[in-house]
Amino acid sequence: MQRWDEELIGAWPCDSGLYVVVSIAPVERADAFRADPAGALAAQVAACPAIAAIVAGAPLVGRPVLATKWTSYFRESAGRGWALVGDAGHFKDPSPGQGITDALRQAERLAVDIADGLSGTTALDVAMRRWWRWRDRDAQEMAWFAGDLGEGGRVYPVLIEILDGLADDPAMVDRWFDVLNHRARPSEILTPPRLAAATTRLLRRHDRPASAVLADTRTIVARDLRRRWLNHRPRFGEPA
To answer: What does the alpha-carbon distance between residue 49 and residue 52 come to, in Å, rounded to a whole number?
Structure first.
């Protein structure tokens, strides 16, 4: 997976020697993708040497599919005699490719709570609400992280500085994959001390105006505090 400027592209191995290539480009290029999906995808792949090397010489075996106008959401996901699993109850930015993982994790946990409710140990309605609250806690951080990964616009230099530091430590690279595999939360990797250290390094290098560096850091801190507030006090909108 590579992210630079406003470009995001990834390639992942599948069965039978196939790779799935996902391109997340600025929405302003949607018309170009509609007019020539294969050409537009090939152009973005060519702009990313790491991905281009992976799929060099490989034939395109399926027509590229364009997805636009989707919306992230958390739904009320359990009630009397029903529960919503996977994308039915929660959908996040697709950038980190977490949808199937979420569905499997939720189904596994839901099966335990259903069995608990049917056994009489806990009232079934109580067990379903318990599962729903667990789903929210389990998915909240990854939802914010996915939105950040797929967000348009520039990437904060202080965030790049944090990631550069992690990339120099093989153990931290493994921990980064732990985030994608739900063995660690993003907040365990992208920590306040790492943000402070990255900010200090940028200030010492004088690559950018100090005011700009500090403004980015303040924005990140303010956004994180707001998210923590919303995680504990969710707001539900009217059905569309």
So the answer is: 5
Residue 239 has pLDDT above 70, yes or no: no
What domains, with CATH codes, occur in the chain? Answer: 2-55 (no CATH), 73-150 (3.50.50.60), 157-232 (no CATH)
What's the one-letter identity of residue 140?
Q
* Cβ within 8 Å of residue 240, ≥6 positions away: none
Q: What are the pLDDT digits (tens) for 39-73?
A: 999 999 999 999 999 999 899 998 888 888 888 89
CB 38 within 8 A of CB 63: yes
Average pLDDT over the chain, rounded to an integer: 89
Helix (H, G, I), strand (E, B) or coil at 48: coil
Whether 213 shows a pLDDT value over 60: the answer reads yes
- Alpha carbon 68 to its chain's center: 17
CA 212 to chain centroid, in Å, comes to: 26
Alpha-carbon span 106 to 6, nearest angstrom: 32
8 Å CB contact between 20 and 12: yes
